[in-house]
Amino acid sequence: IYLWFHPCVSGNVSPHSRERAVMKVLVVYFSRTGNTRQIAQAMTGPLSADLECVQDGRTRSGIWGYVRSLHEAMQQRVVSIGVPTKDPSEYDLIILGTPVWAHNMCSPMRSYITAQKERLKAIAVFCTQGGSGASKVIGDMAKLCGRTPLASLVLDEREIKNGQFTTKLGTFIKSVKFAQAA
Length: 182
Known about the structure:
22% strand; disordered N terminus
């Protein structure tokens, strides 16, 4: 699936000589409660992006799943995940989405990035949080990828539950489009 945009033009280039460029976008996310999934799905349409859900090798439901998730995140563990269905090297931009667990990215997303980082051409990142820690998580994702994100987005659980995320999401989508065009 492709995103059409006009590259930025500067200098002596005529506006009439602008050529359309095609950007192939993949949104990759992990979601335990559904918040991160909701945001990932909401951005695929406006970006004409493909969607990849990181498949976790463990159950994370219930209190013990929650406790395990927090422990793995705090220990920054790489865990067993399913084989991706989409090859990120076939995409110009990968948008990575994770929930914040104990001020860390979730272990399934850490595992995905660790396994795929050499295949990522350009990235943008987003995270959902119930409390705080998002700025650390965004920095950790960039560092683990070895790339500076073209754009980043942080959404709180209350914004998602109340449906008050559309303005921030729209700004993120515009940032992704303009950053890639630059």
